[in-house]
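Tutorial handout. Part one gives the primary structure; part two gives the three-dimensional structure as tokens.
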Amino acid sequence: MRAITREFAPGFRVSSGAHLLHLFDGDIRKDLELDRHGLSEARSDLKTVALAADGQHLVIAGDSVSGGDISEQDKARLKEYRRFMSRFARVIGKMHNQVPPRIASGQRSDLFALTRLALKIRLLGKSDMREFLRIAGINIYDVLQESFDNELLKGALSLDGVLGNHLGPRSNNSVFSTLHRMSGNNTGGFALPKGGMGAVSDALAAAAQKLGVEIRTGCVVRQINMAGDRVSGVTLEGGEALSAATVISNADPKTTFLDLLGTRHIEAGFAQKIHHIRARGNAAKLHLALSDLPDFKGVAADQLGERLVIAPDMDYVERAFNHAKYGEYSPAPVAEITIPSIHDPALAPAGQHVLSAVVQYAPLELKQGWGEAKAAFTNKVMDLLGRYAPDIRQKTLKAEVLTPQDIENEFRMTGGHWHHGEMTLDHFLMLRPVPGAAQYATPVNGLFLCGAGAHPGGGVMGSAGRNAATVVLNHPAASNGPNNGGGK
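Part two.
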């Protein structure tokens, strides 16, 4: 899940993948007693500061907005926008911890689940239900254009519909992607875990070990082994074989089926579906080791620790996306920026800081390759930040950029895609990752999925893992075989 904290320069530690916690399931946190295992927030309820080149920034806090030249009408419209979008997001959120129903299975449980889903939508009320059905599959550009006048506000809100995806504001499904991003039941909003995102993984590991789980790290899996028509374990890169009647994969679906298992063990039609999963990474990650806090023009000292975004207007975001369509990085990217060391000083040496930013758009398959282009892209990103914080270059001790190619290589994620596949309606619920593997069990006996490529999708959530565990514990294929009871 890329919830990792690592040192990228002497004394400077950063969340090298995801850098904000906002979708993690509160019930999982409570059930596993993760707070007792060290999980805490350095800061929760981060506001969003929409940066303006002239320093007239907007500050968005939930359903309120202030600053700049925001009108009273747009302030009122934001409350209404948050109200109806939150209602729609809750419909999606209530499905996070449910195994998706199968379509046309004929089983009563699936029919009941589909009926409950339809009822949840119907209970929105006639007006909101119609609006939900109208906007669910369209683009966030049109929705925001209908709702607001302020360009900076629209730009900032549109960013939530495209981050981590191969989408622009005008792309269909950008509304759905926005709703997914709003659908968690973690009421703390955007949060910075103390110790970085690796603290989330550490707390989960501690909870598992307390329950008797053996955890091995630094053991790269080379292949999933088969005995007849079912899995029999895995082989590590060093040649060590681990026997197991059950294998549960947190790797993305393409890596799991096409690389680790091999297409010879699955039907051609299923292999074709997996091959066509859209996983084109477009998000790069920037890390800066800073000698001091940069001076963002017009940003007050008490606002520097908030979530800073560069998305001046929706057309700017769309133009940035246009380059990715043709294998080019954006010369004027969009960015989501945090300076976590403001709230968590242990991440950097005394008096110094780390900056972490998600930067789009930077396609995996860059036409000229990422060799020499990486330095040029890094320079473009620093130029972008310099327009808002003119002193940032002189305060930068080290800059690190992870392109989608780096992310693919370092984290072994196909395409360098943060969500293991697009967050779109055709990769949602009983269609995620593909029909035939959407309920965590796969066509291969004893092989299950539990990662972001499964329902409910991308983000540090925990829900896919818990749902998968429920399925495994109740699935006959998890216990039938030569190695009963030894599943891993």
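Part three, for discussion. The radius of gyration is 22 Å. Residues 481-488 have pLDDT under 50 and may be disordered.
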